[in-house]
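Q: My collaborator sent me two sequences in one message, no labels, and asked for predicted structures for both. Can we handle them in order? The first one she listed is below.
A: Yes, handling them in the order given. First sequence, followed by its structure tokens:
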Amino acid sequence: MKWRVQPCTSALRVAAVLCGLATGWPPASAQSAWAPTGAWLQVGSADETQTLTAGLVWDWSWQRRIGRGVINGYWEASIGRWHSNEDAGSSAYWVTQVGLTPTLRWQPGSWPEGLLLEAGIGLNSLVPIYRSGDKRFSTAFNFGDHIALVRQFGEGRREELALRLQHYSNAGIRHPNPGENFVQLRYTHRF
């Protein structure tokens, strides 16, 4: 399936802000407690759908020891574009996804430094309502839950690569509720 470039002013604005944040804008003196602590870009694929998603993270200030491991977390805000064909042979179909997800991270004590697991369940809006091939969501509101294997690297382990499995569905609020499963690759830069 080929990607078609469509103008998306909102996504371009978000990308510009993310680029600015990744290069040190705004300066540290202007940042507040509400300033994000990182930015990320992610690609993903399901059976008949591809995604490109960008977002920001806000690390939580707490952490807890569990056995020899450590658990902590972050908030994630995302905006993405999903591309699929509505039906076989039809023209491209685009969906905009906006989400907010609390995520827990666990660094097992027996694992090498910088290798960890994470999981989260968040709220998402998919507009227009998602459809692909024979799948039809019945609501724009959906939950998005994920699990991921994360590898931190670089100076101060501020860079991350994650392999994620993510599921979107409305949890049976309304039917049909076929859900969609994605495999995603994410790059994150912590400020």
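Q: And the one she listed second?
A: Here it is, processed independently of the first:
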Amino acid sequence: MEGVAARSGVAKTTIYRRWRSKEDLALAALLEVIQEEPKPLRHVGGTQTALRAYLGRLIDNLNSKLYGPIVRGLISDLGVDLELARGFRERVLARRVAGIRELLQRGIDRGELRRDLDLEIAVDLLLGPIYYRLLISGEPLTSAFVDRLVRAVMAYGR
């Protein structure tokens, strides 16, 4: 918080008046980045192509100098700060889930995925491995990984 106050030219108390903790400030910064992201691409071809494009933008952000480190830093606090966890789920994760659900539903409507596809599981199958790599395994988040991930979920959905 001291660094933010110094760089912005205001007192630390001014920063604390707006954000109760450095985690709240980090969430606000993350939300600022997310607001600049485009909506899921609806007209880029089939569902597989659209999912690749959407998840490709997500991993590009996670690999960036700002977004990825903020997410990594926040995740450890989500288990102990219920207000922060709620804000992250409602304002960050819900946006991701809604975008993917929209693309999957479009795939169902177009006959590319089966009608009885469990959307909740399909979303988890797409997002879970990305966050697992980001936070636990440390394996790289690459476009090749996204391609494999999307192909696997599309096979599950057929």
